[in-house]
Design a protein that fits this description.
The chain is of the alpha+beta class and 148 residues long. The protein is built from four helices and seven strands. The strands form two sheets. Strands 4-3-2-1-5 form a five-stranded antiparallel sheet. β6 and β7 form a beta hairpin. The protein is globular and about 45 Å long. The C terminus is likely disordered.
């Protein structure tokens, strides 16, 4: 689901990918529901392609959003109530304990929190793609619908 959510440079908010054209994408604003074209000259990135710096490996944004959802129990986050830069970083340390303090700026954390709020407001609460098990054996169901 998060792969179809896009951030577009120069445009506020997040957008859902609706369709693809020859040299453009058709997107819909999560906030307003308004559809618009996005051309190849615009800088577009899928939230599924974003990751956060940690002291070890980079963590996909979907994992960070899941951790945040668990921390705040699926509710929105009031960024202003968190306080100053030190308190925001302290809060984020509870979400992602090993984030790289030097490469993750407070503005990045604020943007992540605002994106999370936008996603929750739009009813998007599943951030990770459903993992499917690929096995060689497929369950067979008879034509009459009964199970073996």
């Amino acid at each position: 689901m998060i792969r179809t959510i896009l951030a577009i440079s120069g445009r506020p908010g997040l957008f859902r990918l609706i369709s693809r054209g020859k040299n453009m994408l058709i997107v819909e604003s999560l906030k307003e529901g308004k559809r618009m074209p996005v051309y190849s000259r615009d800088k577009v990135i899928s939230l599924g392609d974003i990751s956060m710096y940690t002291t070890t490996d980079d963590i996909p944004l979907a994992d960070v959003l899941e951790n945040l959802k668990l921390k705040v129990e699926g509710k929105t986050v009031d960024v202003k109530a968190l306080g100053d830069e030190t308190q925001i970083r302290s809060f984020f340390r509870e979400v992602l304990p090993d984030f790289d303090e030097d490469r993750v700026y407070t503005s990045d954390i604020k943007k992540l929190l605002s994106w999370y709020n936008m996603l929750i407001a739009a009813g998007i609460t599943e951030f990770k793609e459903a993992e499917t098990e690929e096995t060689g054996d497929k369950a067979e169901t008879p034509a009459d619908g009964s199970e073996k």
